[in-house]
Write a structure and sequence with these properties.
nine-stranded mixed beta sheet; Spore Coat Polysaccharide Biosynthesis Protein SpsA, Chain A; 12 helices; 53% helix; globular; 346 residues; 2 domains; alpha/beta
Length: 346
């Protein structure tokens, strides 16, 4: 029995006693968010559903610290810019709850989230659970709606038994978290895939991680083309590709990297290449037309989801941009493969 498995067993309490919960929220210049995201959590504390709400001020220069204190949260300082992973690690060291519930500052949890989350730990072998964004982001511009709906779509259809973790709204047994070493702050100094990497370690150590569709939250961040593309490529696609290739365990068949998603990424790439070939006069219109039909067929479910949530015009734009997502994601993976296998970089 390894150390983490021992931690799972030693962390167990009687099934008749609910596990106590410490909420941990890292904040950097998040005053505009926490005035909305903290009150639901503090209300849960007043109802006795959670033990404490710890806000980690990660070197903010706005009024985040003062607002959190005024609202009634426990506020600690990270001592400077450590990034969300380092801030969470610091709070975990002083938290009193048996469960560490990580909630991002730009996330407003639903009123039943604590109750739903607690039920996820009824199985004694479960070391972590996480939820998803809901389908109603307050920001109504195209990129915010697209990004949040895509997250909701994949998480609501993902496997119950997860191979990863999400710290936007996810909980871990405190003992397991401390034994695992917490978030890797050396590799991920900025918001990135530190939660995904932690999830891989938990699963590889024999722990069970579950995705609970009932645990939902509203995402407050406004996405625009610039911050979306930068985050998706440099904070998600490239580091995630590096993690997959360096782990040697292959691509997990889940969420937005599963086998069916890989097929759709291939179709999007083939469609793009056929359009370039058509414009260059190399081929006629029949092949791009067939590839377009194939793309529509392969993406029919998410296209219908976009239509139901935003109408025909939004669905058309979201489906087209989703093909762009496949292109830059596939390109990021190809670059990392070249980087590691050809250039020998790690």
């Amino acid at each position: 029995m390894n150390q983490m498995e021992s931690a799972v067993i030693s962390d167990e309490e009687s099934r008749s006693q609910p596990l106590t919960i410490s909420v941990i929220m890292p904040v950097y210049n998040g005053a505009e968010f926490i005035i909305t995201s903290l009150p639901p959590l503090l209300a849960m504390q007043q109802r006795g559903e959670i033990m404490e709400v710890i806000v980690v001020d990660d070197g903010s220069t706005d009024r985040s610290r003062q607002i959190a204190q005024d609202l009634g949260a426990i506020v600690i300082s990270s001592g400077g810019r450590m990034g969300p992973g380092g801030a969470r690690n610091q709070a975990a060291a002083v938290a009193q709850g048996e469960l560490l519930w990580f909630v991002d500052a730009d996330v407003v949890v639903h009123a039943d989230a604590a109750e739903c989350l607690s039920r996820g730990f009824a199985d004694q072998q479960v070391v972590a659970v996480f939820g998803s964004y809901d389908s109603n982001p307050p920001a109504k511009n195209f990129f915010s709606r697209y990004k949040n709906l895509v997250h909701h779509y994949y998480h609501q259809r993902a496997n119950y038994e997860a191979q990863t973790f999400w710290s936007g709204c996810g909980a871990i047994r405190r003992t397991t978290f401390l034994v695992s070493g917490g978030f890797d702050v050396e590799r991920y100094k900025y918001p990135s895939i530190e939660d995904i990497e932690l999830g891989h370690r938990l699963v590889n150590a024999g722990g069970r991680v579950r995705l609970l569709r009932a645990v939902q939250c509203t995402h407050l961040t406004v996405w625009r083309f610039g911050n979306l593309i930068h985050t998706e490529i440099f904070r998600r696609a490239i580091p995630w590709s590096r993690l997959i290739l360096s782990s040697g365990s292959g691509i997990p068949n889940d969420l937005n990297v599963g086998m069916s998603e890989q097929v759709r990424a291939f179709i999007a790439s083939a469609l793009a290449l056929s359009i370039v070939a058509l414009i260059s006069g190399i081929i006629g219109a029949s092949i791009p037309f067939l590839m377009l039909l194939l793309m529509l067929f392969a993406n029919r479910e998410i296209a219908l989801f976009f239509y139901r949530r935003g109408g025909l015009l939004f669905a058309f734009g979201a489906l087209l941009f989703h093909q762009v997502y496949y292109l830059y994601s596939a390109s990021a993976f190809a670059w990392v493969f070249f980087e590691q296998k050809v250039l020998g970089r790690r």
